[in-house]
Every structure is written in structure tokens, then in C-alpha cells.
Amino acid sequence: xxxLRQIRRRMKSIENIHEITKAMEMIAAFRFKKAETRFMKARxxxxxxxxxxxxxxxxxxxxxxxxxxxxAVKKKTLLVLAADKGLCGAYNTNLLRxxxxxxxxxxxxxxxxxxxGKVGVDFFRKKNLPVLSAYPEKTAVTSEFAKKITADLxxxxxxxxxxxxxxxxxxxxxxxxxxxx
Length: 181
Fold this sequence. Notes:
alpha/beta, 4-stranded mixed sheet
């Protein structure tokens, strides 16, 4: 049986662990609020950009450009925007499940994947699925990173249809996978 001194020492260590955990929760809450604020400030910009592109493509009329050509699709590529760490729980799981569903829907085409984020890259490599290029970098998403991905996907040879799957944030605790294209 433990002595009174040992029991008090254990109680004190449990209190210390609780304080450390509470401090870690406060730091995580601060970081989350900061990221949420950045996200909310950027969202109207992206929504307006999406509307602008839709308006321009609708009003373009007869434009001779490779991006506006109608052609038979033989190949399809999916850009998967996953997280860098596995601490996102259902976010990565739902995203990767949506990507596998996309692959099943498009099995009649020659498909390839472009995963961004360490979790997505590791998942598709373990499954031996066709990865066109991968971005496992643990970097902040910047315009340079977006330009790098865009340059690789912009003008591939042949008739390739491109799609993207990402987590659309509905609230601070929920996001659903969304697929474009």
C-alpha cells in the first residue's frame, strides 16, 4: 500500500499535468481562432473570384484558347488537398474516402492523383494508386505553393479533365468533403 507521502506526490503530479494540459488547450484555442479569422477574411475574396471567373467564361463568347476547347476526355486527374498531420481526425478520413469514391466513379477513364499534404501522399502511396505528382511539404499554404501546383496542372499534354477534392468548412467543428469538376 502506498504511503501518504506517495499519494500526495501523485496528486500533485496529476495537478501539474492538468495545468499543462489546460495551457496547451489555451494555446490551441488561440491558434485556431487566429486561423479562423484569416479564413473568414479570405473567404469573400475567393467567392468573388469564383463569380468573376464564371461571369468572364460565360461572356467570353468565341474564344480560342486551350482552356476553353471542348474535347473528349480520356484522362482525369484529382487534386486532393489533405492535411499535413494526422491530428485532424475525420477531416482526412472523409477527404480520402471522397477521393476513393471519385476514383470508383471514374474507373472508365485513365485516372491519376495529385495529393497535397503528407497524410494524402502517404495514403495513396500505400494503396499503390497512380500519383502524377505529390506535395508532401509541411509548409504554410502561400501563393507560391499554389502557383507551383497550378504550373504542374495548367497545360498537361493530352485531353485531361481536372477535379479537386477538399474539406469545405461548415462550422468550427465540422467540414465535409467537396469535389469540383
